[in-house]
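Q: Focus on the chain.
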Amino acid sequence: MNNRFIIATIMAIAARGGVAQEISAEHQVVDCGGVKFEQPVTVNFQLKNKGLQLRISKVHPDCGCTAVNFPRQPIGDGESFVISATYDARQLGHFSKQLAVYSNASQKPYFLTIKGVVAVEDISYKGDFSETLGSVRADVNHVEFDDVNRGEMPVKRIHIINTGREAVSPVVMHLPEYLMANVSPTTIPAGKQGEVLLTLKSNKLPDFGLTQTSVFLGMKPGDKVSRDKEIEVSVVLLPAFNELTEEQLRNAPQLRMDNNVLELGKFGRKKKKSGVITLENIGKSELEVSSLQMFTAGLSVQLSKRKLKPGEKTTLKITAEAKAMKNLRTEPRVLMITNDPKNAKVIVSVKVEK
């Protein structure tokens, strides 16, 4: 066979492959949030064809509880289209239903998912939405994962309500590797509620003690990051003592403090105020303060000794800056991580009058 013909044929096949049909979805998984029992919910999946003329042969739901509608006519290159799915909501509890989309784009189906939770009564949040996150209101704008042990995956919930005039599709941005996020429902109409679930992957945390970060709630994918969309997240990872023997526990160090609340009062004209707390080891082995951190800005600490033999004492000096205290969202606190099995985490609250 002529070599030129072979090369030309390969190039033609490659050129056709470069513009083959490809389906893309704005949201491949749509969370409907709370759905009332026996009140069907419909989801309109927004999709687009990227390539040659697309033909959808069928859309197959994974159960008879879901009805579908899809375009029968050919879909041109760059054209958008909608596949709708209606779930009958006749079964209580969580649901997750898949749609298999068959087309000339691939021999394998393209999957879409609709999920949510069916309940008899209204499961809306009844509390206050006192914080602003972009164009929605929230019950909180900071999350604390306290007393976490390595391997645990605790979940925190933020309730939100869309107080704007248009629907939003919130997304959590700037997630570190130790956090996962899910917003339900995927799209929140004006005046309706939703929730943000933050899941901690504690195995991904770098070290014991306090880890802090900020994530941001965008109103749509690709939204800009700004201060008014910020959610502060803090994690306290504890050392594990569950493998200690009874003898090791009897001979363990034991921390005693003269106070875990430091009252600094009013600043007056002072730029800074300081106070001292006494620490003592009343145990039977050496006490170590392995980590000493601040939950908020505007605090500084000075610990005379980090290791105390049985019977020894030391002092912890805490200094607060007046200017920084004025803009805090949360209470100023100091965190200590120790090797005392009964006091692995110690928090000192700093009380100031602004």
Summary: The chain has three domains: 23-119, 131-238, 246-351. The chain has three helices and 26 strands. The CA atoms of residues 19 and 257 lie 71 Å apart. The radius of gyration is 28 Å.
